[in-house]
Target: ABM domain-containing protein
Amino acid sequence: MGSYAEEQRIAEDMTIFEHWFPSAGKTEKLLEAFKAVLDYVVQNADNIPCFYLLKEKIEEGTGTIIVATRFATKTVHDDYLKSAARTSLQNLCRQDSLLRAPPLAQALRTAAGFSFRPPGPQSFPGIHAAMAKIQYAPGTRSHGIEHWKSVAASVDETEKEGTYTYWFLTDPEDEDVLFSLERYKSEEYLWNVHVPSAAIQDNIAKQKGIRIGLVLRGFESVEENT
Model:
């Protein structure tokens, strides 16, 4: 499970990206509040095959915690929302004023790439995550997705030792935007190995006329430290 080819066969999964906004000075306390959720995910790994807790590499009090989760079905997602673990998280956020704004959730669909490599979506200290919001000229996103599928196939073959996630997703509420989540063994691997690759350089040239905007953000995986 988790290879590029297998990812394309996933038809019923539900992916949610949640954006949590920690209050100033309370980022670490918010991460600690996810402990019950992490335990729940481990206990339900067969139905929650992907869970990333990502801390933005930005000044304290201004950054975001992104929780990227893939559920096997909508029912699994609904069960999680009703779980004691989720209730515990919400209660801690209220009791300790951990949030500066309510969390936001995006329901996304896999369009290209892979959410993790075998044997699983494990994280460990040092993993660098890059998230991008790619804006396309009206009506051209589907062409962009085809280009990313080719890149993902190349990455799956040539970057096995350092690219753990290479995932492109669509938002049904905006047909001209594509989101990506990439996870690397280090930030240096992203810039020194992945970006200079022939596949990426060719992709940049091919998408030059259709991609009209890009917002790139850096994160670190923190599941292992929570």
About this structure: Helices lie at 4-7, 27-33, 35-43, 74-81, 84-95, 141-158, 187-194, 198-207.
